[in-house]
Structure formats: structure tokens, C-alpha cells
Write a structure and sequence with these properties.
The chain is mainly α. 52% of the residues lie in helices and 0% in strands. The N terminus and C terminus are likely disordered.
Length: 144
Amino acid sequence: MPVTRVCLCPPNKKLRGICEALIAQPANNDTLERWSDHVHTSSRMLARLFRQETGMTFGQWREQLRLGEAMSKLSTDHPVADVAQELGYADVRTFAVMFKRAFGCTPQQFKARPVGLNLEALAPTPTTQHPFQGALYDHPLFVP
């Protein structure tokens, strides 16, 4: 799954405040409901604004922020356990699963790659058909 480019500073003042707070503290796990209390608006309104201004849900935006931070920290040789903790993951395994889902390699593989090697070179080459490929599963509304 490729990493989506994150709009770090949405124009809306309320969203910008939330985003700046999360950029400063990526380990913050406050829910959208909690943020809505901070900025005195409904969580539904914030959810709509996030989708409109960033093209992502709040959760997707936060994950993209954390993925970017993870790559940055791992590239500067931070220990994987420290990165997981600094980004608010419950444990290293949870962080590693998210990282591998996003990039196709583990954080350890990412750290061990030769400098300049892109992530696609680390991704495994598919040898079997994905279990959700074919007929019914090719429909654009199907989400596994």
C-alpha cells in the first residue's frame, strides 16, 4: 500500500490546530470526539472537514503522519522499539504490522536497506494470486 501524501496544514483553523498539535506530539491518541470538545464543534463536522480538506479520514491522516515520522526516525537509526513508543503504538509488534502493511517490509528491513534503495526493492514479489482477486471481488465497492 503506497503512502498517501499528507496535507499537513489544512486551511480550516480548527483542523490546523488539531494537525499542528498532532505533528508536535504524534503519540497523542485522542479520538476525534475528544478533539471536537477541544475545538468546540461536533465530531461529525470535524470528520467531514478532515475528509474535505485532506482527502482522508482523521484516522488515515494520523496514520500517514506517523508513517512519515517512522520513516524519518528509522532513517536516522533510531531503535524500532523507541520509534514505536514515540509514535504512540501499544507495542513494537503493532507498529511493525502497520509498517509492513504500508511499506511491504518490516521496520528492521527498512533500517537494514542499503542507502538509496527504494522501498519497492524490498517488497516481496507476488507468487500467488491475492485471495480477493477475480469476478465478484473486482467490483469497485468491494472492500476486503
